[in-house]
Amino acid sequence: MPQFDQSTVENTLLKLLSVDGFARLSGEMERVDLPLRHVLVASDVPTTHVCFLERGLGSMVVSSTDEEVVEIGHIVPEGASGMHVVLAVETTPTRTFMQVAGSGIMVPMETFQRALADDPEMKDFFLRYVHTTVLQLAHSALANARYNMHERLARWILMCHDRLEGNNLAITHEFLALMLGVRRSGVTNELHVLEGVHAIRSTRGNVRILDREKLIEIAGGCYGVPEREYEKVLGLPHCAR
How far apart are CA 4 and CA 88, in angstroms? Predict the structure, then answer.
């Protein structure tokens, strides 16, 4: 098994760990490819690994009993999947899978849980990260309740832009519909609104950011608070844009 160097890993959480904390995990780390639709966390099934993404984008989704599905958060190279175990929960009804293919570093759940038990500082660090994911969920609920569709769409595009490299986002209309909890036709109409003000250019399977500042203006107050909280509680800017 290859040795991992903390200075060269591409996951923000792993970079921010103490040297001792990283050492507690590194012996069992495995770098893996994460293809499109790969499941990181299955609903109601004990999670076997924590995955620290280095590239790509995972979606956390929740399903109702009548099979309505909506995205509630992102897992990206600044974060990790399987964080419900930090709260002493073995399984979760939510599901996490790759919406944009990438790669990551897997750590067996037993190794991760043992490290948390042996290192209170490390456990506190991951609890702070869980706090930022809960805040992201809270602001998604706020956006859904109080903001118009094009404002919510601008927010989600900004969030994807923060977390993916470059200005071309390989995201489909189906993905955006899942994120926003609407029909695909509704997403298409709202993309046209953002194209009309020259904020983006949308083609099949791709959204190109033309004017990030325009998107921030459109999103208004539903974008920015979770991003600033991430920086505050973990001590590193959410993104370098």
Answer: 27
